[in-house]
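Protein modeling request. Please complete all fields; requests missing the sequence field cannot be processed.
Requester role: graduate student
Desired output: 3D structure, token encoding
Chains: 1
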Amino acid sequence: MVLDELRKLFLVIIPLILVFSFTSCKKKEGEEAEIKFAKTGSVAPEFTLKDINDKNVSLSDYRGKVVLIEFWATWCPPCRASIPELVTVYNKYRAKGFTILAISVDEGQDVQKKLVAFAKESGMTYPVLLADRNATFQYGVNSIPHTFIVNKEGIIKNQYLGYQRGISETLSKEIEVLL
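Delivered output (179 residues):
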């Protein structure tokens, strides 16, 4: 009887763990225990980061455009799943004043070279940037993907944590209103 109860509990817990693990990825255990999140309705924190071509890119460079900022990593399955949808949204709206800044939290040796190859393979023609601790802290990123929608005036209008199948439709509706 106890064994049957444990089996039932196991069958409930495992699917929950799998669902959570495929909706977002933890960045690192124990890092910044208390984080102040960038809030919807507030000014998006400014940053200047290197892109994968070693060029400095600042959020302020895109003032006057609608910007989707996504913190992500190549090792994160939900992040990888979101890329085709982001590519679709980018291609649909880039000529109308929209861009994506994909901020990678990947680390390690040859990360820049790895990201160049990954971006090309994945069709990421929008800017891919290398995160730093300051940017991830200011945006309160402790799991990925973490996406922010910033309007033309630099105000965070919405944010999404984790991957949601069909997010391109949701994002399209939101972007159309902001453009």
